[in-house]
Amino acid sequence: MPLPEQTLAELSRLAREDEALEQRLPPELSTPISAEKTAALVGAIHGKLGARTRRRNFLAAGGAVAAMAAGVALFFTAGREGAPLPLYEARVEGGQQSERSSAPHSEVLRLRAGSKLRFELRPQSDYPEPVHARVQLLGAGKDLELDEQRSAAGALKLEALLPASLPERGEIVVTVEGASSSQGTQQFSWPFERSP
Hints:
Immunoglobulin-like; 5-stranded antiparallel sheet
C-alpha cells in the first residue's frame, strides 16, 4: 500500500497532465454543446436503437411464425400412419408342386432339402407403401434367407433356399408386414413334409 505522500504526489501529477491536455484540445471540444445539437444527437441515437428494436421484433415474430408452422406440420405428419395393408394373395412354387391361395393352407407341401421355394405375394389393390416379408421354417425354428423383389404396386417376389437339414415335418410361414405396425400384418402358412 502506497504512503499518503506518494498518493498526493501522484494526484498532483495527474492534475498537471489534465491541465496540459485541456490546453491542447481544440476550442470547439471544450465549449458546451447547444440544446439543439444535444436534441439532434439524442434523436439520432434513439432512431438507431428503435431500428434495431424493430428489426429484433420482426425477427422474433418471423421465428415464432416459423415455429408454429413447424408445429402444425409435425402435428399433421407425426400421427399419420400409412394406409392399412390390403389383403394379399400368395402363391408358392418349388419342391414338387405349386399352390395358390389367399387363406391358410391345409394341403401338405412335399419339399426336398436344399431346393428353392418361390413365393409371389400380390395385393388385391395397389399398395405403394413400403412392406417387409419374412419366411419362417417352423419345424426348424428359423427364418430363411430371402432374395426379395418389390413392384411399385406392392407385389413381392421372394426366393428362399431350403436348408439341407430340412425336418421331416413342419410348417412354412410367410409374413407380410407394413412399414409401421399399425398398418397390419398378414400371414400365410403351409404344412410340409420332406420328400426323399
